Fold this protein.
Amino acid sequence: MQILNDNSCSWINDLSPRTNIKTLQSIKNSDWLIVGAGYTGLSAARKLGQMHPNKKIIIVDAQLAGEGASGRNSGYLVDTTLNDGFSSNKKLENYKKKANIYDLGIEAVKKFVEEYQVDCDWNECGKYFASSKLEDHKILTNFSDTLLKLEFEHNLLSSSELSKKLGTSFYNIALYTKGGILLHPGKLVRAMIDALPNNVQLYENSSLLEWNKDKNIISCNFKNGKIKTNKIIFATNGFLKSLGIRANYNFPVTLTASMTRALTDEEFRSMGEPKEWGVLPVRPMGATIRMTKDRRILIRNTAEAHNPFKMSQPDLYKRSINQKIGIKKRFPQLPDDIIQSSWSGIVSRTRNSSQIFECIDDNVFVAGCYNGSGIGVGTLFGEQIAIKASNETTKEIEIIEARNKPTRLPPQPFLNIGVKARLMYERLRAKSDL
Ligand SMILES: Cc1cc2nc3c(=O)[nH]c(=O)nc-3n(C[C@H](O)[C@H](O)[C@H](O)COP(=O)(O)OP(=O)(O)OC[C@H]3O[C@@H](n4cnc5c(N)ncnc54)[C@H](O)[C@@H]3O)c2cc1C
């Protein structure tokens, strides 16, 4: 497997190029090895470095650190995700457990941002779950009942209120939740790279090819080097399955997104000069669409089970055409060549949308599978898996471990058929809102 950087994501292109990039070229020993340098791995490395200043900690990434999903997502730090309402107290209780984890995730990112004075365009502006279909009113009123029971501040909005706030008359109904945060995902992950403590060594463009455990030593092979380590944390999210980690419980999904150039004054005026906003779809496969603080529009409207690690340029181009259509449906006044960049990214899913946070063997740990909440939950899980790997516990770990555990996936070929059929069905259901 080869993972390559593709230079096509506007968030990453906004950042200054990094220097002093080291690639693994020799044999090393470590107390801890972390595989994967996104929010999860970088947070784990930071926490381990702080907890064990005299230990040797190595973090590796197959590509440049932070340039996987962590640097190329839509930037919603979520307090809630949409569910269609609950028929039983048990389901409500499960939703509460999930929301408690989101809350801890927001706290973890907020603490990091405050402690390291991170400028990541943090905006506590909330978010909208919006739909062009009036019949989605029922889904949103059910959701509103759930949020009311759990005391989340929110309100339902009609089309006229929405068009003022969003600058488009495309949407007919929405539910606004106050707790969500919008941010620049690239700036956040870059700050996590910069915050790595001195006793953490980072090796990039260094892909773990295979690993084995013999008694208390874990041996890891890379193209041009080896690492022998006492403990290992897998933080490779969308790549967990390809490394054989909890392979019967998670599978990769490829998402694509596009971003426009900054709108001109005239274009922005034509929308009524809205403040920064973020819309999530009411139906799972509809478009996530966001107006950034510097007047760019981001759209993500695909999720696919094929195209595993690197989408070809022609495939990406086809998706960007659909993304242009998605933008023009909402803002017909914009020109055809408004998209500046399009990119793909890999995430990981479980059957019941529950996260992985486990010790899978003595001294072997894994955290991942966040289902659209990886900014907060990835940061939280990274920090907490480091604490767990240090044989300590916290109230956060107790809350994380009280969640529902991921359920086993069906065997192949049923898994592939099931996932593709489900994604296709959801895409059809959300067709008007792509
Ligand atoms: C288009 C898109 C939009 C999204 N929108 C949102 C959003 O708005 N809000 C939200 O919370 N989440 C969102 N997500 C999901 C979020 O980005 C992820 O959940 C999060 O980045 C997971 O972080 P991570 O550190 O666990 O994994 P990643 O960021 O994927 O990091 C894993 C790293 O492991 C490395 N790796 C893999 N295999 C190997 C190997 N063999 N050897 C060494 N390194 C390896 C990869 O190169 C990668 O850098 C989105 C994702 C995408 C793609």
